[in-house]
Amino acid sequence: MSSLLDYEKSGGLVAAIAQDYGTGEILMIAWMNKEAFDETLATGRACYFSRSRNRLWRKGEESGNVQIVHEIRVDCDRDAVLLKVEQVGDAACHEGYRTCFFRKVVNNELITDGARIFDPKEVYKK
Amino acid sequence: MSSLLDYEKSGGLVAAIAQDYGTGEILMIAWMNKEAFDETLATGRACYFSRSRNRLWRKGEESGNVQIVHEIRVDCDRDAVLLKVEQVGDAACHEGYRTCFFRKVVNNELITDGARIFDPKEVYKK
Lengths: 126, 126
Description:
The structure is a homodimer. The first copy, chain A, is mainly beta.
């Protein structure tokens, strides 16, 4: 099924960019192995591979903020995918921001200008 | 200077997404080492690190299609950057398409629907 992609260049993984389907905003970048890509195709929900936890990461499994996949695009050398998604809960980042790219570089410093949607302490109760 | 970023998680590299500054279209994804990121900051032109050629890759060095950087954003764990760029020549992909993501997945096949701007045989004369 996902012989569509070349997993060899990054040790069994491809990069996966999630972009808001409506606004075009980049929400996050993560990784997929073959299993994650196949599950994403089959379910229409973004499933990544967490390198730090070394397991499938069904986006939203804790927070409820799943990503509904509207389109999947593949780059020229087939080692990256672009998911056009609808972000449930309006926040993709585990820090509670709409996008993981909530900071910009200004004069060699990181300035936060992204919108914070939720307080992570409230959402990820351990 | 680029202690702004965490290069350790991917062996000295960070992922770099280029997004059209005006339209929001994702043009490509590549990699940067510290030297490439510092050069990008210093020059305002996108400079990547080519894993296949194992050297700095000044985008547009052959084709002339440089990327003028308008904004640099950094993700939550500081191992990915988002460049908002102006794509000179209107094509980011070495295959002549506007974006490297010129194909989408439809029924487990890759369908090309991206706009081809130039013929690579004409541009990359060897």
